[in-house]
Specification:
The chain is mainly beta. 3% of the residues lie in helices and 48% in strands. Strands 2, 4, 5, 6, 9, 10 and 11 form a seven-stranded mixed sheet that branches. Strand 5 and strand 6 form a beta hairpin. It is globular and about 40 Å long.
Length: 125
């Protein structure tokens, strides 16, 4: 069973930045031959939506709203997935979740992932 633990959320003013981290254990790169890790978010009253994903070949996929503002990265040596978020807007407010899965075809589809973290809250005012 893969355990994912997010950190780095908080409150920030519009235009500010936050960096989210997700520690994976055991190491997903050793557990799966091919895998994908991603960030999703969910705001009250809205469905969970994909933010960004990176697979074991370092192919990156961003949601349109994340392009140019968010950067996803994966440090395999530290088993840590990160999401750097800049120029934050109030509409970026929500719970951000880390996810991992193997055999992912649609990187921003939550149904593709079977391992999830508990989430970290991001509030932009």
């Amino acid at each position: 069973h893969v355990q994912l633990v997010e950190s780095g959320g908080g409150s920030v003013q519009a235009g500010g930045s936050l960096r989210l981290s997700c520690k994976a254990s055991p190491d997903t790169s050793k557990r799966y031959t091919t895998y994908c890790m991603a960030w999703f978010r969910q705001s009250p009253g809205k469905e969970r939506e994909g933010v960004a994903a990176i697979d074991s070949n370092d192919k990156i996929t961003y949601a349109d709203f994340a392009k140019g503002r968010f950067t996803i990265s994966n440090d395999n040596a530290k088993n840590t997935l990160s999401l750097e978020m800049n120029a934050l807007k109030s509409e970026d407010t929500g719970m951000y979740y880390c996810a991992a899965g193997s055999g992912v075809i649609l990187p921003l589809d939550s149904n593709e992932y079977n391992h999830w973290g508990q989430g970290t809250q991001v509030t932009v005012s």
